[in-house]
């Protein structure tokens, strides 16, 4: 993360990386944590619209957009296990 942080000069990409890493680094994620993904994807789209889309950025944005649809059913199934 540190290498990506210092290599990217755009602050929007740094904010996007920080919010995405925050969600990944926590031991558990809940449905209300999806707000951090929306901030990360908004900053990523903002930078991409101004600077042009790089290879793979559209896939990342679509995955972030679809993640609440995947997390919600998994959360319900996880609660039944315990």
Provide the fold topology.
Blueprint (H helix, E strand, L loop, with lengths): L1 H6 L3 H15 L8 H18 L5 H25 L1
Helix pairs in contact: 2-3, 3-4
Sum up the structure in keywords:
single chain; 82 residues; mainly alpha; 4 helices
Silhouette: globular
Order of helices and strands: HHHH
Provide the low-confidence segments as ranges: none
**Radius of gyration in whole Å, from Cα?**
14 Å
How would you concisely characterize the structure shown here?
The chain is mostly helical and 82 residues long.
Q: Could you walk me through the main structural features you see in this protein, from its secondary elements to its overall organization?
A:
- It is globular and about 40 Å long.
- The protein has 82 residues and is mainly α.
- The chain has one domain.
- Helix 2 runs antiparallel to helix 3 and helix 3 packs antiparallel against helix 4.
- Helices cover 78% and strands 0% of the residues.
- The N and C termini lie far apart (34 Å).
